[in-house]
Amino acid sequence: MKNRLIIIPLIFFLLIILTFFYLLIIERNPSEIPSNLINKEAPYFKAESLFKDKEFISSEHFGNEMILVNFFATWCKPCLDEHEFIKGFSNKKKIKIIGINYKDNPKKTIKWLKKLGNPYSNIPLDKNGRIAIEWGVYGIPETYLINSKGFIKYRHVGPITKKIYKKINLLIDEIK
Amino acid sequence: MTPLLGSFTIWLSLFFCIFQFIITLKNKNIKYLHLCVNGLLISSLISFLLLMYSFIISDFSILNVFQNSHTTKPLFYKITAVWGNHEGSMLLWILVLTLFNFFIFKLIDNKNSSFILKTLLIQSSITIGFILFTIFTSNPFQKIFPTPENGLGFNPILQDPALAIHPPLLYIGYVGFSAAFSMSVATLTFKNHQNILWYSYMKPFVMAAWTFLTIGIALGSIWAYYELGWGGWWFWDPVENASFMPWLIGTALLHSLVIVEKRKSLQAWVLLLSILAFLLSVIGTFLVRSGILTSVHTFALDPSRGIYILAFTALLGGYSLILYGINSKKFFNNNYFNSFSREGSILINNIFMVVVCATVFLGTIYPLIIEALTSNKISVGEPYFNSTVIPIMIPAILIMGIAPLLNWGKEDKLKIFKKIAPTFLSTIGMTIFILIAYKPNSVLGVVGIILAFWIISNNLLILIKKNKNYSKGMIIAHLGIGLLILGITGSSTWQEEKILKMNINNQVQIKKYNIIFEKINEIKGSNYVALQGKFLVYDNNKKFITELRPENRFYPITNIFTTEASINTNLFRDLYMVLGEGNSEKGWVVKIYYNPLVMWIWLGALIIFLGGLISLSNNLKKLQVLSK
Amino acid sequence: MIKNKIIIIVFSLFFTYFFSYYSYSVEPDEILNNKEQETRARNISKNIRCLVCQNQSIDESNAPLAKDLRILIRDKIKSGKKDEEIYNFLRDRYGDFIFLKPTLSQNTFLLWFLPFIFLAIGLIIIFFNNKKSKN
Question: Hey, what domains does chain A have and what are their CATH numbers?
């Protein structure tokens, strides 16, 4: 009996080492959280719209076609860095993009978009951050891919990089 | 010049270490061993001092200095920045390893030479591993071209005296267990182990490691309390847990070594514990430096370094545990002892310490295991550890009160009852007094008071009886724990907090203190500018107690904002104040804490440290007798 | 005198501009008037992880997201939601990661029971040892 007992620490030790090894090998970001909304319907919300007089009602837009939702703000530097890619989605991929303006000053947003180009078809204003919370956003920029039935298929936290840009483009083609 | 010399001395220490390995392996040419051990220590000391020198003269041609220093940094913090970063701290690890290597060597005499040689063999293997890791992945003397004008500055939150000296003390703890590990492995492979009092050799090393680990952990908590601004001092953060686990195993080890000495029992258990203590230190190092976890304390590193440390850990642990699996049988004996005896209660302590350690380990790595198995992420935070560790600790502490009063060998239960009757009554008495006078509002608070007074009164009883059979160090350390529990209970149960907006000339009442907001100043420090609020504190009798001056600082070079709490401390309570944002019209956000008995947490830890030092000196005296 | 006042105003604005991006954990204007509700809010907040911090709860954190969540929790308490409903709301959007106290589920069964199983094994060892010593 004692013989068997002695091996127990060794076995536990090896299992733990294997787990750590596995986690080191795969590419993972220890502070990134997977979205809880994948394969769920895009959350419903209403908000003031930036350029249009009419209120933005999400149900009027989701569920008809594939959409990219991008949470952004003028005060957010990574949002500036990824803007080219967002424009790329709009111009080259021809996908409709809804830009949710997070805790921002609308006048500043207008200037920012005038200067850098506006890839968004609609810009609902999330003035107090509640819409972001509905979507499980924790750090902008965040980008969501919604399929034509209105279900969230993919989320990326942080600025879109070349790699992620390619990945999302592939996903868009796959889902179509 | 310096970086070249620095790298050279690291290579030199590797050379001496390999030389020591070969000598101890072949068991010949022992005269050269003296050269190796000293050469190893001196070369690692020189490389450490060279790095320190580079920081002092602000040699920004060295990447490490550039990344972690700045010309405006105060001198004291330039020096302590040496170990405040990953590469520099590896040099400190190596230095302490070579220091303990030296102390192990000092034990050598005619009777124990082959045992000590084996121990030095293992110790040199460990040291080679760390030096190789440093040379190939973490060389602090790496250069940067072209030489920058100035450094990247350093996080001002880390510019604090407690934080500055906490790593060296902590490392003496972690690394000290390496000596116990080496001795354990040496014992397992030693043919005539019955002739060697390996446990007597191990004891001072375990005592030193445990004692310094205690004060190292305490200093980290002191820093957190004074610096982080919300009055907390323990967060069950993975890196804190990484230091707590070796401490728990160290506590168990310390106690069971006593049984091995007295009864020659539990040898196999002690050999396992000494392996686990150091393994946990190394796993802790891995968790902190591999990038596998996020924590306030982690060094920002890449997974490739993590793989190296993991491989080293796997080798170390795999080898020692397999060896244990094969060789430990000869150390078993069938001495069973009654639970109602000194040995029995020490065994019980061991079980509790190991269970708590297993729990902390489980909680710390569980999120990683779940992530590996299911790709889900969960958090295991403070509430988990509080709900599991505290209930398990309570019976352990209750037994800790009685244990020193018990005799070796079986004890008559009636006798035990007679022994503890006075302290039992005094504990109940004190508790009732506190209940009436201070009205605690939580059950846990009452339990804490009972535990604290239970430990304190039992140990005071032993002191009063002046029985020479008791180890002074033990009594003092146990008293320290009683005071620690008193401090922890007081500061959590009776804490009061006030959050409000204050304008100049407003006042606020907290407990018996009246605090008036006098004015707001702009001040300048050596590398920061700050807004400072001046608050005057009076008691109920309008007597002036103190000024509180909380600050909001801005460090222009690193672009960092910090809040500096203003704390007035005495033995009974801390008055702790934090200044928030605001302006002259709308007023300023102010947070005030009344934290009773906090000082006793630190004093308790200090007293434990002193008790450990006393025991350490006694252990060393015994060793001297042994060698004669 | 006036120079000092100007410096203070400049610094206040300066700090307010930057500090308005930071809050100081729970702020006075967040505190609910009803003491019971406020206690509930604090207790819930202490269990919610600040997702942009290193291992802190939203109750302790300075981050803007932490403040938003604290206010959201208070709004829900005021509108009559129970603790469980609030926890479910947060879990639906952020997953189990946001809870500092792991929920009891299939995944966490071992986490919660192993410590006490360890203790039981330990106590069995003591009992076993005690019995053998009597022989």
Answer: 35-175 (3.40.30.10)
By C-alpha distance, which of B322, B321, B333, B346 is closest to B194? B333
Side chain identity, residue A16 = I
CA within 13 Å, CB half, A29: 7
pLDDT of residue A51: 86
Question: Can you tell me the mean pLDDT for B511-529?
Answer: 91
The reply to whether C42 touches chain A by the CB within 8 Å rule is: no
Rounded Cα gap, residues B244 and B277, in angstroms: 11
Tokens found for residue B492 = 């959590």
Q: Nearest CA to B371 among B313, B432, B426, B294?
A: B294
In angstroms, the CA A5 to CA C127 distance is 18
Percent of chain B with pLDDT over 70: 97
Q: Which of B325-339, B351-365, B375-389 has the lowest mean pLDDT?
A: B325-339
- Give the mean model confidence (pLDDT) for residues B136-163: 84
| 3-state class (DSSP) for residue B471 | coil
Q: Which chains would you list as touching C if contact means 3+ CB atom pairs under 8 Å?
A: A, B
- Return residues 94-123 of A near C (CB < 8 Å): 103
Alpha-carbon torsion (B118, B124, B127, B129), positive or negative: negative
**C47: contact with B, CB 8 A cutoff:** yes
Phi, psi of B5 (to 5 degrees): -60, -40
Q: Which pLDDT tens digit goes with each residue over B373-418?
A: 998 899 999 999 999 999 999 999 999 998 988 888 877 888 888 8
Q: In A, which residues are within 8 Å of C95 by CB distance?
A: 33-36, 136
Q: What is the pTM of this model?
A: 0.93
pLDDT at site C21: 39
Which A-chain residues 1-40 have CB contacts (< 8 A) with chain B?
A: 2-3, 6-7, 9-10, 13-14, 16-17, 19-25, 28, 30-31, 33-34
The complex scores an ipTM of 0.90
